[in-house]
Amino acid sequence: RSRGVRPATLTGRLRVTLPLTVVCALLLSLLLRFSPAQSLAAVLLPAAYCLMTGLLGLVVNLKNPKLEWDSEDKVVKQSTAAMLGLLGGIAPAAAVFIPYFLFFAGSISFELLYLIALIVFLLLSAALWLWLHRRGEALFEAL
User: Higher-confidence residue: 65 or 3?
Assistant: First the structure.
């Protein structure tokens, strides 16, 4: 029964974010006249980020559920999960891009940075997926 909750929640999120992400990336690629490699990176990196933040949101919501509430607004706007999800989504991007601009801007290409970021986001997604697979079911059942 609970096996369907995790994929359904993630699938719902990705159905909303991925098409918009792809359209925006393709339009940006056309507008800025990206090379094919840059266009591919412009699609893949945000898609990997959407996946990672979706999985992170599931983990945070399982670890910090807000089950007592008066209105839906409190769950969305005043929960620990909402704050951790927002800050947790920003932290991996900052960890990749801030060092680039501070230390490596002239020494490595932006394409290499995108590749490094893509690998980091996919590795974090895999770790979150494994955690959800191993521990998430038990936490969900305990709710």
Answer: 65
